[in-house]
Amino acid sequence: MHTVLAGGVGAARYLSGALEAFDPSTVTAVVNVGDDVVLHGLHISPDLDTCTYTLAGAIDPERGWGLVDESWQAMAELGRYGGDNWFGLGDRDLGTHLFRTARLHAGASLTSITAEITATWGLACRLLPVTNQRVETRVTLADGSEIGFQEYFVRLAHSVEITGVRFAGAATAMVSREALAAIDDADALVIAPSNPIVSIAPLLAIPGVTGAVTARRDRNVAVSPIIGGAALKGPADRMLRELGEESSVVGIARRYRDLAATLVIDEVDADLAPAVEQAGMRAVVMPTIMSRPGVASALATACAEACL
Does the pTM exceed 0.85? Predict the structure, then answer.
């Protein structure tokens, strides 16, 4: 089984390659839920939905989130009333959130609901929320105030300096039985090229997850989300610097060296491979920018081979 610790666009693209490289039924993603938010009474799971829509070939390719050929009449009408519409929800996308919310209210778990959603989209792989309980990523701004991640990321367009991140509810949450088994039973465990602070760290904050990952360190591989000192998408590079870490593949190696034996880095950073190894991880150098056909599947194949 090919298991991926996942969150956001980078993970979704990696998973697309894994589905090309392997039997989709053998691919499982353990997905971050710290980004989840309740808006307008609806439970929204951005990372689960981004992975679902991407793997179903329905993602909006320009935005990297939401559905392609979407319409926005509901949000426009909400704005006309003077309602809060800073978080864009497309008309078709609303159907996903309505279904999820109704099923949660009926007592179904987020794990079972996600399986129902992915089955509707015809996906043969598994997307597993790391926990069925509520965990919320909270961001502390430079002025000392604390806000939810989506307020930081969407409403403020991640344009403000931060001084801290915490995961409310993580300490008392329980890793789902399915997610823990996917980690323990994996032939290859891959830390996707996702934001290490707000996509991967919330997974590891759930009791039992870090222990399960570190217990099999030699069979784990991480893909650096930092290329040439920068993130391809989103604020990961700025967040690392603002929190006192190095925004480079070496900084990623220092963060992940207890979790995985191997770090895959892009050819742009080939000269830093010795420094990555000095930091405690074996370096594999290859193309990692998944914008061209074949790169994602080659990356997934190389990750599986690195775990042997």
Answer: yes
